[in-house]
Amino acid sequence: MFGGFDSKFYDAYHRMIPKAPGFEKRHKLYQLFHHLNHWNHFGASYRSSSVSIMKSLLK
């Protein structure tokens, strides 16, 4: 949402600590929490990203 670590960091991290089953879905769920929180606090500019994440979780 606000940048953070680059893909090289996460590649190295997951070489040491492999992704557990369901990682991608949990990652989206954690992202959704922050998008919904921002939608609540800052308004409709976060609606689209929140809905998009929700739709991807339902697939």
UniProtKB/TrEMBL annotation:
Pfam families: Fructosamin_kin. It comes from the Eukaryota. PANTHER family: FRUCTOSAMINE 3 KINASE-RELATED PROTEIN (PTHR12149), PROTEIN-RIBULOSAMINE 3-KINASE (PTHR12149:SF8). It catalyses: N(6)-D-ribulosyl-L-lysyl-[protein] + ATP = N(6)-(3-O-phospho-D-ribulosyl)-L-lysyl-[protein] + ADP + H(+). Transmembrane segments: none annotated. One of its GO terms (molecular function) is protein-ribulosamine 3-kinase activity. Its EC number is 2.7.1.172. This is protein-ribulosamine 3-kinase. Signal peptide: none annotated. It is an enzyme of class 2 (transferase).
